[in-house]
Every structure is written in structure tokens, then in C-alpha cells.
Design goal:
111 residues, 4-stranded antiparallel sheet, two-stranded antiparallel ribbon, single chain
Length: 111
């Protein structure tokens, strides 16, 4: 649901409105919590709180959640670095193979 939406319906399943989320939000889970709805946002490492009518109530905050999101952000940065390192290594390998192929073809044509 990357950049997906959350839609509010009444008890008769009549569409009411779309809930406004931050840019690039990735709402992956909804949980009813008392008289609120909690929405986890994977891309932004946040848990939003909404009323049943879709009115934003601020982010859900707790020390345990903060610890989890800090760990998730560190892991995301680490995997981003791995991704770019892998792309760089692939490009260097491909460039090396192209230089090797050029050298072999030039030595073969000079004979």
C-alpha cells in the first residue's frame, strides 16, 4: 500500500472521506485502541492516532515504540548503504570486465 490511503465509511458502508496522511506514507496496519484507531506507517516510522471519524489526534508515543523506531531507522540506513555498495561493486565489476574484454580483443587483432 505504499502511498496508499485510508478511507472512512459510516456504519452503512457509505463513503465519507479519505484520511489525510503525510507524503509517502505507507499505512500497513490499523488497530482499534479504545475509541481511537492506530495506523502504523512503515515509510515514516510513525504510528498515527485517529478518531473513528478520521480526525488526526497526533502520533502515538511510548518509550518502547521510540526504541523500536530508532532501531528500525538504523537498520534502514544500514541496508540503504548495503544497497549502494552493492550497486557500486556491480558497476566496478562490469567496468573491469569491459576493460578486460577490450584488452583481449585488441591483443587478438594485433596478431
Amino acid at each position: 500500500m505504499n502511498e496508499g490511503g485510508i478511507y472512512v465509511f459510516d456504519q452503512n458502508w457509505q463513503y465519507r472521506h479519505k484520511v489525510q496522511l503525510p507524503e509517502q506514507a505507507d499505512p500497513i496496519s490499523l488497530v482499534v485502541f479504545g475509541d481511537e484507531v492506530l495506523v502504523s506507517d512503515w515509510n515514516n516510522d510513525r504510528v498515527y492516532r485517529f478518531s473513528f471519524g478520521g480526525v488526526p489526534l497526533g502520533d502515538f508515543e511510548s518509550a518502547g515504540l521510540r526504541q523500536i523506531t530508532v532501531g528500525a531507522q538504523e537498520a534502514r540506513r544500514r541496508f540503504e548503504a548495503y544497497k549502494y555498495l552493492g550497486i557500486l561493486l556491480f558497476a566496478l565489476l562490469l567496468g573491469g570486465l569491459m576493460v578486460r574484454a577490450l584488452a583481449v580483443s585488441m591483443s587478438g587483432s594485433s596478431r
